[in-house]
Design a protein that fits this description.
Helix 4 links the parallel strand 8 and strand 9. The strands form 3 sheets. The chain has an 8-stranded parallel barrel with strand order 3-4-5-8-9-10-11-12, surrounded by 5 helices. A two-stranded antiparallel sheet has the order 1-2. Strands 6-7 form a two-stranded antiparallel sheet. The protein is α/β, with parallel strands linked by helices and 323 residues long. The chain is 37% helix and 14% strand. The longest helix has 21 residues. The chain has one domain: TIM Barrel, CATH 3.20.20. Helix 4 crosses helix 5 and helix 7 runs antiparallel to helix 10.
């Protein structure tokens, strides 16, 4: 079956249900990243049927992600949907800060457009709420940016329902970007139903839980000292062992489909009620080709039941915040 495009909220913009998340290609927290592979990965995503690319002002200390997108995908810009985010920037090579003041957001979108070598983005997010700036002020600035034609739509990321309501009172929200995967489903309680009721597209990040749910890390995996994942509870101790048991169950389902664990996980994600697209990071062409394949088929009812049973058996993970 061929992948069908989906709507970005009420905008009429059509997006592929698998998007490429463009944080890993910067190499800030991902190991063994290089420019040649990053450019090849972006091109491979297009060849695999992905038209939706998600980046941010702070993806790269000096905008490396946006610059790579311009270099690799510039010739086909008009065929793509590009989303970027503002409101977080680097103050040193090791420290990022929130800043959602209107003047900062306007500066960042102009800089993002310069880096992307384009006159507009299709979707501009407020990357996260800034506790030092009233949401209504940030929303007003993004509304002005949209009115100016520099973005076709506005989205928000990492919000709760109260924040969604407050922002929406000033600027229409077309998309919401939260973390979500088989083992982290908190949005199903409140924010996801709110988005469905308001026809807001939901684009989820961490569908593979920072690579854990790709199924490639063995039970005895030793993390490299520079691999930031080792600091998270899901990659430690008893939680790690429970996750490995869960992956064993998923491998059984994957074998019945003739697909990889990562493809099963992404396919499950993009067919969840209310989910518009899954943002899949990649730093090598083979990685994005693998996850893009999840757009071409659908799990059976029996396979979904088996996954539901495995999730229930795993139980709610202890995350102590985000992954």
């Amino acid at each position: 079956m061929n992948s069908e495009k989906r709507q970005l909220g009420k905008t009429g913009i059509e997006i592929s249900p698998v998007a490429m998340g463009c944080w890993p290609i910067t190499g800030i927290t991902s190991l063994d990243v290089n420019r040649t592979d990053s450019l090849a990965t972006l091109s491979a995503a297009v060849d695999a049927g992905i038209n939706f690319f998600d980046t941010a002002f702070c993806y790269g200390v000096d905008g490396e992600s946006e610059k790579l997108i311009a270099t690799a995908l510039g010739p086909c810009r008009d065929d793509l949907v590009i989303a970027t985010k503002g409101g977080i920037h680097w103050v040193s090579p090791s420290e990022r800060v929130l800043d959602a003041h209107p003047e900062r957001l306007k500066f960042e979108v102009d800089e993002s457009l310069r880096r992307l070598n384009t006159d507009r983005v299709d979707l501009l997010y407020l990357h996260a709420p800034d506790p030092q700036v009233p949401l209504t002020e940030s929303a007003g600035a993004l509304h002005e940016i949209m009115d100016s034609g520099k973005t076709r739509a506005v989205g928000v990321s990492n919000f709760d329902v109260k924040q969604l309501e407050e922002f929406q009172s000033v600027c229409p929200i077309s998309a919401f970007q939260p973390p979500y995967n088989m083992l982290q489903r908190d949005i199903e309680a409140q924010t996801l139903p709110w988005c469905v009721a308001h026809e807001v597209a939901v684009f989820v990040y961490w569908p593979l839980m920072k690579g854990l749910l790709a199924g490639h890390l063995p039970r005895d995996h030793c993390f490299h000292p520079q691999d930031g994942r080792a600091k998270y509870p899901m990659f430690q101790g008893d939680e790690w062992q429970k996750n490995q048991d869960f992956l064993t169950e998923l491998r059984g389902v994957a074998s019945t489909v003739g697909k990889s664990v990562a493809q099963v996980v992404v396919n499950w994600t993009i067919h969840r009620p209310g989910i518009s697209a899954a943002l899949c990071g990649a730093k090598r062409p083979a990685q994005i080709q693998e996850t893009a394949d999840a757009m071409q088929w659908k799990l059976s009812r029996d396979q979904i039941t088996a996954i539901d049973q495995a999730i229930a058996k795993r139980g709610k993970p202890v995350t102590r915040g985000a992954v």
